[in-house]
Each structure stands twice: as structure tokens, then as C-alpha cells.
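re the bet — no i am not wrong, look at it urself. input seq straight from the record:
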Amino acid sequence: MSRADAQPHNGLVRITKIEWRGVKVPFGHPEDTGGRQLTRYGLLLWIQTEEGYMGVGEASPPGLASEADITQIGALLHDLAPSALGLAPSVALDVIDMLTPHTPEGDVLRFGLETAVMDVVGQHAMRPIVTLLNGYIDWVPMTANISFLDADETARQAAQAVADGYACVKISIGSLDADHDVEVVRQVREAIGPDVALRADGDEAWSPERAIAALRQLEQFNLEFIEQPVAATDLSGMAAVREAIAIPVAADEAVKTIEDAQAVIDARAADVLIVKPSKAGGIRAAQRIMELAAENGLRTVIASSMETGVGIAASLHLASCLGDAEASALASSRMLESDMLKTPLVPVRGHITVPQLPGLGVEINHDSVDHYTAGVMGVIAG
């Protein structure tokens, strides 16, 4: 049903049905995937109440995933769904959190179910999810992410991103040739000018010693931060890099759960935490990571795990829950043939606005869901 049909109700709202559908969506821009035509497998789910409110969420495994991955999450949802039937959504949030296992599949499912429940709660309260998180609607800046390319092409794409309105560019480095990385960063900085924020991702490629040697050469280019310069498991190595260089260090693969975040903080291994709500175990768990970081003087950046527009919408609400949002890595759904929304969530002049309608604030394109349906689906009602 549409939001126009959903009227506020003073009584209890109870969940009567949970439905889910797998989707397989090709990437619409093969140039973004090294020229290969890849497909993204994901899982969308819906929670319906007796009053007719319908909340949507996304429980898609990180990365491209496979039909086997979404089948496994669908089976877990089939086992958990009956426990939420008949409950008020606010109660269901805590029941779902308690019963969903703390595994990669469970954390992804918790994110999807929590998003759908918050969508219902927000619709009922006539408030966007971000306000339920005590944040406010914001015009969230995006990063322009550029894959590992030669220096000329990286610089060309960076300059085009700035011309398109992006004020933050992130490039991939971490080769075995430090001179190559220096040349890439030099050309990009020259192409975008001194005032555009420039981030670099080492993608766990270096040893601590090699990272320090390479990054000392890159200090002259005013990098906003270097993301995951060494292996995620090597917190002492990350701390050594952070101590030795002037460039702030960001932890990405090293941070999934709040326990991971605490370990990074305790090791003094990073200045910035990259937070992905599907890996963190949901919106509320991701918000707790953000709060923990803020309490310890660290910044947080919200990033997607290649979700469709449903997961992106949830992440946008999260991005501004503590105030002005950092430049976020939430432009990934633009690479898909469809982000499953009637109004796609893609950057305009380098920004995406947090949806302003009650709840999640987006409308599903059911024709797209039907078109891209994979062989995973189910419904539990009662």
C-alpha cells in the first residue's frame, strides 16, 4: 500500500506477514567491473502489519554474492520469521536482535529486518528513520570511488568526478611499486586541485614497513586518509603505520562489529572507522559503532556493501544520525541496471539527500523486482 493510504493509528501495530524475494541484477556499467558483465545477487524483504503498513528492508550479502548465499539467508529468515508475527514492531526489533545469530549471514539478515521494522515504525509515527535515530535530514556528500587504474586514466576519472560535483575522491593504490602509487596520487592531485578531498585505499596490500615507506612519499599530496594500508588482522602493524606517518589512517576491513571497533580503538590503530551496516549487524549496531568512535575522538564514514537502493536508503538515514555526515561511500547502486526503486538513489552534483518521507522514505519498483527475481522467495503469515 502507499504511504498516502497509511494513516496514523493510536493503537498497537502488530506484524502479520513477512515476505522475501531474491534478486539478481546485472551491473549496467561493465567499465566499472574491469569490462566483465557481473551480476549482483541480493535479498529484499517486506514486513506487513494488520493495519496495512508495509516496511521494506534488504538482506544482501556483501559483494556480488551468489544464489547459494541468498538461499542461505532466505532459509534463516524462514526459521526466524514466525517469532516476529503478532508482535508490535518495536518489540520485534529486540526479539529479532536476540534471536538472529551473530554470523555474517545473521548480521546481514538483522540489517534487513531492522530496516523493514524501522520503516513500519517511521510510517506509523509519520517520521523518517533518521529522526528515529535522533538525527536530521541531510544532503549527504558522496565519494567518487575510482578503481585501480593507470595514472592517466585515474586522473581523468577524478577530474570528471569533480566536474560532476564531487568534493571527495577516493582512489585505489597499494601496488608493489611505490613509484607507481606516487605517480597516480601526484597526477590525481594535479587534476583535481588542492581543495578537493582525496582519499586513498591501500586494500591491505602492504606490510607495515612497505606502507610506511610508500606513505611518507605521499604525505606531500595532502591525503585526507589512507584506508586499510595493511592487513585487517594486523592491528599492531596499523598502529605502527599510524604512528610513523602524518596521513590519518582509516580502518575498513578491520571493522565489522562493535567489538572490532573497540579493538581498533584500544590498539590506537586508526583515526577513522569505515562502517558498513550490513556487516555491523544492522542500523542500531552501526550507530553504536559511530557513537563509540565519537566518544574516542575518531571519525566515521558510512559505506555500502554493494546494496540496491533499499540498503542505500537505510545507510543514508544512518549517515546523518549524529549530525553532519562525512562524505559517504553510498553511490554504488548507480552501477546496477536497476536499484529497485521508482526514484533511484543516485548522486546529484556529488550528493544524495536522505529520504524525507516517513519511514525509509522510498518506493519499490515492483516491476523491477519481478524482472530481476532470482529463485529464492518465501512468505510467512499468521
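see?? The chain has 13 helices and 13 strands. told u. also Confidence is low (pLDDT under 50) at residues 1-11. so pay up
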